[in-house]
Amino acid sequence: MHHFVEGPHKEFYCEQTPLAALAQRYGTPLYVYSRATVLDHLAKLQRALRPLKPLICFSVKSNSNLALLKLLVKHGAGLDIVSGGELYRAKRAGVDPRKVVYASVGKTEEEIVDAIRWGILFFNVESLQELCLISDIALRLRRTARVCVRVNPGIDPHTHRYITTGTVESKFGVDFETARLIFLNRDRIKNVRVMGCHVHIGSQITQARPFLAALRRTLGFIHHLRSLGIDVPWLNVGGGLGIIYREEKPQTADEYARAVLPLLRRARLKVIFEPGRFIVGNAGVLVTRVLYVKETQAKRFVVVDAGMNDLMRPSLYGAYHEIVPVAGPEARDPRSEACRRTDVVGPICESGDFLAKDRMLACFQPGDLLAVMGAGAYGMSMASNYNSRRRPAEVLVSGASHRLIRRRETFADLVRGERRTGDT
Questions:
Q1: CA 77/CA 80 separation, integer angstroms
Q2: Of 71-85, 142-156, 229-243, 353-367, which has the strongest mean pLDDT?
Q3: Which residues have a Cβ under 8 Å from the Cβ of 422 and sit 6 or more positions away?
């Protein structure tokens, strides 16, 4: 469910705010988020998983805007971070450090020092060398670090190979035997408390079966450790819940809870979840303006002012995003002109710069506004300055009101930090 709706004159709204009015005020490309959708999706997870009393840590990498982080933290969420920059954002968001978990296969010494000093809840440890480095740093700082060991359960979640993280070929986590040796020797690891397991098998997973398979293997491993007298109080089950982009039929929060609750309640563990896309994916759209319409014998090209630097997913994953006109009954009515096979492409000098390929779309005209749906996750957080393009503005809508939560970059921003010619 989301709060992007068509109004009485076929004008597209975010809650009670016309997208066209936002585009006129702030320009395009423009990211627009629905506050109601963000909070509704968080609340659905909180209600569905309530019997476990879990810690729900929003995955910052999916959308790292500070206003959204503060909103989620205010309504009870912790944060799942993967870099020193996200750690900085977590601090600025005002989250309790004991509600922060830190993943990533490549944490630097500087990042580990910062996280230990701040007092985060857990590092999700991804290798033996990382564990040794955390131990050395904690010893030097005269502090104790808490960790969960990320296990790789060897489960294929049947999602895109670039967002699969739980197979044996993946760079993430350690195998069960390595994890067992860590737990068996944890008392020898100075200034580190090994508190639990972490498992995350991928992203945009629409069915319960892969989650259950990974959970059963991980819980079996925890049961084995307990049979050896090793206490394992925590389990971080990661994230990865899929959403609707096109014709997917993902599980709802309630359906997911019904699948995993029986296993987790019997395990008697403190549980962490790391949702990202599920909360913000369909809470955001990218508004873009048509620049040109180019007709060829093969197809029609609709050239817009948003490109792969603004929304990387289609170029990177071949991801599908629905594209709808923002205003005007003529544009929304496919009978106004025969539909034709159309590519919606951006201005970037790459053949891979597209937002949609081979769609049967009615004709658009220069100046028309389009909304790229499902852009709230891994949209702005993956945006870049490629081709020296300025990154878009972001707006958060609440009913009939809105506020700018990130201004559009200026040309001066593009060279900020670079040495001027006269300084060389």
A1: 10
A2: 71-85
A3: none
Domain end (from 260, 275, 290): 275
DSSP assignment of 230-291: ----EEE----B---SSS--PPPHHHHHHHHHHHHHHHT-EEEE--SHHHHGGGEEEEEEEE
Q: What residue numbers bound the domain in which 368 lies?
A: 4-33+281-415
For residue 258, give the amino acid letter. R
CA dihedral 50, 52, 58, 62 (to 10 degrees): -100
Q: Give the rounded distance of the alpha carbon of 342 from its chain centre.
A: 29
pLDDT in tens, 116-164: 999 999 999 999 999 999 999 999 999 999 999 999 877 654 443 443 4
- pTM comes to 0.92
Instruction: Give the amino acid at 218.
Output: T
Phi, psi at residue 294, to the nearest 5°? -115, 120
Determine which one of 132, 148, 339, 349 is catalytic: 349
Residue 72 lies in a domain: no
For the chain, what percent of residues have pLDDT higher than 70? Answer: 90
Whether 14 is a known active-site residue: answer: no
